[in-house]
Amino acid sequence: MTLRPVLLLSLLLSAALPAFAENAAPKITVLYDAFGDDPALEKDWGFAALIEVDGQRILFDTGNDAETFRRNVAAKGVDLADLDMVVMSHRHADHMAGLSVVLEANPDVAIHAPQEGFGIYGSSLPSSFYRKDDALPARMRYFDGAPPETLHFGTAWSGAKLQPIAQTTEIAPGVWAIATVSDVPGTRELRELSLAVRTPQGLLLVVGCSHPGLPVIVAEAAKLDPDIHLVIGGFHYVSADDAAIAGVVEALAPYDIDFIAPGHCTGEATFAALQRAYGDRYLYAGLGATLVLDSAAGPDRPRGAAAVFDDAARTAYRALALRGDHVHDHSAGR
């Protein structure tokens, strides 16, 4: 049988598509945030982003409201059934509410989440964690005095393929979940995962809320690769005073960061300070933005002075920030 030229070309292109996908430039798309310039998406306080690299599709966080997340995902044409993995940054609701939507579409997807002793993502502890008193009668003792060697704790997502992470781990070739722990008043002992992806341009660092401190996370990322091409996500200075904001700008200065794209809980005053500090290396990455890492010159996004909020975006961000549970003390010296 002789194939017609058009059909033969179509078959050849179809066979080549996976290779094109694997060799495509890494990119990240913001699916959930309280500011942005895409009218097809619904703004809300929270964060979610899709990272596509080396043929893999990684969802980072799932936003604040399941139905808003569902609509935004649909508007961007994202098929959750095609996800290769999910990374949940931490246990706050504005980052995890859409996980149920993900599991509807992809119940067997691997979900990497912070390991905590008693956490919503489930965990386990050796039964030796509690003191025992053999003098008590069995009816007064846990498990009648004969506990299992390991105690397993439940999760809000029964049946989900949750994979707790306690320390920085390479979860795929060139992809790491960076584990840090907050020592900041208001979130002390909260465990958080950030995502680091090696790209031809340098390291892509995606942060959810940076509760342990953005400089702490950047320092951990620099141990993997000191050449950091882009830092994107929530920096958690939404209520910070000027001294604290100046402090984080100063703390980031020694690191080799090509571009910075703050979002979510970074805060308006911190947006402005980072814009001044980084100039054209400051990228606008609001809701719906897609940043393609295909050039040393950085993603093709509004940058520097062109990355400012308009009045409508500023008003919406302020209103949604008031609804977010992010008012922690970021005054200098705390």
Automatic annotation (TrEMBL):
Which Pfam families does the record cross-reference, listed alphabetically?
A: Lactamase_B
Q: EC no.?
A: 2.5.1.105
- A molecular function (GO) term: 7,8-dihydropterin-6-yl-methyl-4-(beta-D-ribofuranosyl)aminobenzene 5'-phosphate synthase
Signal sequence residues: 1-21
Q: Which UniProt keywords apply?
A: Signal, Transferase
Task: Report the top EC class in one word.
Answer: transferase
Q: Where is the Metallo-beta-lactamase domain?
A: 45-264
Q: Which CDD domains match?
A: DHPS-like_MBL-fold
| Name under which the protein is recorded | 7, 8-dihydropterin-6-yl-methyl-4-(Beta-D-ribofuranosyl)aminobenzene 5'-phosphate synthase
